[in-house]
Write a structure and sequence with these properties.
1 helix, 2 strands
């Protein structure tokens, strides 16, 4: 049996805040049903209902 991985898109960004450089790496599956922004909005709305 082969070990196959689902394709994942990856994004790397660098942010400079003051004298500190932050490297942010994000990954998402190509088969995802919603994007990250939509998911975070949904999580916040659900949290506010509680």
């Amino acid at each position: 049996m082969e070990n196959t991985k689902n394709p994942v898109s990856e994004m790397i960004r660098e942010y400079q805040i003051g004298n500190t450089c932050y490297v942010v790496k994000s990954r998402s599956k190509e088969q995802a049903q919603e994007d990250a922004v939509t998911k975070v909005k949904r999580l916040i709305r659900n949290d506010l209902k509680q």
